[in-house]
Design goal:
The chain is mainly β. It contains 2 helices and 34 strands. The radius of gyration is 21 Å and the shape is globular. 49% of the residues are buried.
C-alpha cells in the first residue's frame, strides 16, 4: 500500500559524500565511472543494502529506511548489545548525532515527513516476503531524540506506514500468526498500542468480520505526490473479497489484480479492481507509475501488453489500451505527458524500453536495451531517464533515447529515486 515509488511498502536508505561515509558508518566502494559522472545523486538498492550513488562513488548502509521522496533516511547499526540510530539528509550527506536504543533493532518504515521511524527486531519486505511465525511482535517507535514508544503488538504484524498525523501506525497483520498465509491491513493507535480496523471510503468503521484478508502478491507501492495516499498493486488474489463486498453480502467479482488505496490522513482503504487480463501473468510483469500532479495512476502488464489509466479522484479505471507484449520484470515511470515502460528480459528476448503517449495511450517509440533492466527513474528536472542494469546505472535523453552516460555499480539490484536535500 513507492516516485515517489515505494515497493510496498518498502522504503529505502541512503548516504552521500566521502566524509559522510565515515561520519555515518557506511561502506564506500568507490565504483569507477564509465562514460562520465552521475549528474544527480540517486538512491539505489545493492546486494549489501541500500545506499546513495553520487558522482562515481557508491556508499552503502546495510540497515536503513528512507522517506518516499528521498530526502531523509533513518539508519541503524549494532552498538554492543544495543542499537545506534541516526538521521541523514540524503541530498547533502549530513548526519545527525547518534542516539542509543536499548536492544537490537532495524528500521522497518518511516513517516512521510521523516520525523518518526518504526523499528522491528527483523526487517521484512512488505511486498516480497512473509514473516516467520510468532504470537507477539515487538515494535519500537523512535525519532531523532530516541525512543518514543515501545510496543508489544499481539499477533504477527509488519509495520507498513504511519498515519499523516503520526498518531497511528498501519500494519500488515499476518494470519494465522504462527503459520501465515494471508494478511489484512490494520491501524494501531499509538497512544494506546491497540490495533483496530480501517474505515471504509465513506469514513465508517469496517464492521467486525468484514476486513479484507489478502493472499496474493504485493508487487509495488506508489505514494501520491501530496503524500496523503499510498497506492499498492496486488496480483493473484484467490478467494479474495473486498471489504465493500463482505459488508454488502455480494459474492464479489473474479478479479486477479487490484490497486489497494490507503488514505494516510483519513484512515480509509478502497480497492480499485483491474480488468482481465491483469493479474493472470507473472507478478513481476506488472508495474505502476503516477503522474507528477497525482491525478492519474497507470498500471501496466507487459506480459499481455495491457495498460490501464486510473483516475485518483474518483478511483475508477477510466480506460485501457493494448500495447505490444513483452517479457521479464516490468518497470514504469511517468511525467505529465509520457509513460516510460521497461520490460527486463526473458528467455530468448532482450530488454526493451517504450515511450507511451498518455493522450492516446499508444507507443510512440520502442528501443532495445543492451542489458537487462532492474529499474527506471526520472531525474528531478525530467531531463534524464536513469536505467538500472546489470552492474551499472545508465542515463538517457528521454526524448531521443541517446545514452548520455554510464557508471558501474557493483551489486546493483534496483533504483529508488533521486536523493534530494531535506
Amino acid at each position: 500500500m513507492t516516485k515517489a515509488t515505494i515497493s510496498r511498502r518498502t522504503l529505502l536508505t541512503t548516504l552521500a559524500g566521502a566524509g559522510a561515509a565515515a561520519l555515518a558508518g557506511c561502506d564506500p566502494t568507490g565504483a569507477p565511472a564509465a562514460g562520465g559522472r552521475l549528474p544527480d545523486p540517486l538512491l539505489v538498492q545493492v546486494d549489501g543494502g541500500l545506499g546513495v550513488l553520487r558522482g562515481t562513488d557508491l556508499e552503502v548502509i546495510p540497515h536503513g529506511v528512507a522517506t518516499a521522496d528521498g530526502r531523509l533516511v533513518h539508519a541503524s547499526a549494532p552498538d554492543g548489545a544495543d542499537t545506534a540510530l541516526w538521521r541523514i539528509d540524503a541530498g547533502r550527506g549530513t548526519a545527525s548525532e547518534r542516539v542509543r536504543l536499548p536492544g537490537r533493532w532495524v528500521p522497518q518504515t518511516v513517516s512521510v515527513d521523516g520525523s518518526r521511524v518504526a523499528l522491528t527486531t527483523e526487517a521484512v519486505s512488505v511486498t516480497k516476503e512473509r514473516p516467520a511465525g510468532r504470537d507477539v511482535t515487538p515494535v519500537l517507535i523512535a525519532d531523532a531524540g530516541g525512543v518514543r514508544q515501545r510496543l508489544r503488538l499481539p499477533g504477527n504484524v509488519v509495520p507498513e506506514a504511519f498515519t499523516s498525523d503520526l498518531a497511528g501506525l498501519f500494519v500488515l497483520e499476518w494470519l494465522p500468526p504462527n503459520a501465515p498465509d494471508r494478511y489484512r491491513v490494520r491501524v494501531v493507535d499509538l497512544a494506546t498500542g491497540v490495533p483496530g480496523p480501517l474505515s471504509t471510503r465513506a469514513k465508517a468503521p469496517v464492521p467486525a468480520g468484514a476486513e479484507e484478508e489478502m493472499r496474493g502478491d504485493g508487487r509495488q507501492a506508489v505514494l501520491a505526490p501530496n503524500r496523503a495516499v499510498l497506492y499498492t498493486l496486488y496480483t493473484h488474489q484467490p478467494e479474495h473479497q473486498h471489504t465493500r463486498d463482505r459488508i454488502s453480502g455480494r459474492p464479489g467479482s473474479d478479479v486477479h489484480a487490484f490497486v489497494h488505496t490507503l488514505n494516510l490522513e483519513q484512515r480509509w482503504a478502497y480497492c480499485v479492481d483491474l480488468p482481465h487480463p491483469f493479474g493472470e501473468g507473472p507478478t513481476d510483469g506488472h508495474a505502476m507509475a503516477i503522474t507528477p500532479d497525482g491525478s492519474r495512476l497507470y498500471v501496466a502488464d507487459t506480459t499481455s501488453g495491457t495498460v490501464a489509466e486510473i483516475s485518483t479522484e474518483d478511483l475508477t479505471v477510466r480506460r485501457t489500451a493494448r500495447l505490444p507484449a513483452g517479457t521479464g520484470p516490468a518497470y514504469a515511470v511517468a511525467d505529465g505527458d509520457r509513460l516510460f515502460l521497461g520490460a527486463g528480459a526473458g528467455a530468448g528476448a532482450g530488454a526493451a524500453l517504450r515511450t507511451v503517449d498518455l493522450a492516446g495511450l499508444v507507443v510512440t517509440t520502442e528501443r532495445p536495451v543492451r542489458d537487462a533492466l532492474d529499474g527506471l527513474v526520472l531525474s528531478p528536472d525530467r531531463a534524464r531517464l536513469y536505467l538500472a542494469q546489470h552492474g551499472a546505472v545508465t542515463w538517457q535523453d528521454p526524448a531521443t533515447g541517446g545514452e548520455l552516460g554510464r557508471v558501474a555499480v557493483p551489486g546493483l539490484v534496483g533504483l529508488h529515486g533521486p536523493a534530494r536535500p531535506a
